[in-house]
Amino acid sequence: MSPVVTIRLVLTVLLGAAVAGQAPPGHPELGAKSVSSQTSPSGNGRKTGGPGGYVGDDKCRSCHSDMFETFHQTAHYLTSRLPSADSIHGKFTPGENLLQTSNPVIFFRMDANDKGFFQTAVIGKAPHTTLHTERFDLVIGSGRKGQTYLFWKGDQLFELPVSYWAFAGHWTDSPGYRDGFINFNRLVLPRCLGCHATYFESLSPPGNRYNHSNYVLGISCETCHGGGREHITRRSAKSEPESGQAIVNPARLSRDRQMDLCALCHAGAGVQLNRAFIYTPGEPLDKYLELPSADPDPQIDVHGNQVELLKKSRCFQSSAMTCLTCHDVHLPQRDLAAFSQRCIACHKVESCGLYPKAGRQIAGNCIDCHMPNDESRLVVVSGSDGGQAKLRVRNHWIKVYPILPAR
Predict the structure, then answer these.
(1) What is the mean pLDDT of residues 276-291?
(2) Which helix (H) or strand (E) holds 260?
């Protein structure tokens, strides 16, 4: 089989020994030797669990239907889902469903059939192969940049070894897995789920045990607004006062508390100081999470500290701006010209150094110049031809950058 481009993640890796399992139902490997392993059933759908007072997004729809519809198209809401042909962005068609590794006797195959979606590690050469198969049980990531997949083993959650990165268009090694090894043992800890789901009821120890029947996938309305039960009760009774409302409106929080709410997931992994999923919007984050100290040379990464980068910006330091100044999280915002209008609200086009040559057309894209899509130092694409490419991530340090030659 011909080599394909794969992504090598320069992250802390877990070394794994080769292990074996069984082939997916309906896809037996001719002459394969199989060693049985437990394949857990997939999740039971979007639950209405969560901390006390959580009622689920559907309760918001009747009063906020427009926001409900647009928010459910955002990357936040779609950051975790159950597996389906729509939610999994990687391809299962023959020839496109394989991940070759640097080990000539190990590859991975992705299969879809009427019983679900599966990843199979294949060791050896046909007809003498050994297989290990696990089911796609949860999809993590909206798919804009990529996706990682999880599987249940009893009440424990593990990361599948093969992920999908959209910018390369291929299956690839999952974060933390070493190329050329077979390992299905990477634990999924609460801090990871805390930024990709609204709630999981933890049954720890160990750290990756959760209640199958009590979780809420995606980032829901109540992640940022807090539990809605009392709010709905008051509104139903038409008794909610102008002040002291039972629901949190992040736009009314102080600047520090607004930034804390975003920093919960956009300021790096940090160190968990309390149980996951109990942070309430409007509270100081430092009671729950110890964030990395300021870095003079912060890393650009999908899990990097974008809040710290924004705080380094002169725009932030000389104004009262917050993340909400530019971002409306209820909308799937992708239009750079629309973002640029937020810049023009404070800055004159004529003050830009490019204005004498380019004129007013520069007002259509302040973002690519002053918040460039920088190369990640942690996610690298390498191919069999020796070439490399890197994932690009929007830099939130707003400033004047050197003008690079056009590519």
Answers:
(1) 93
(2) helix 255-266
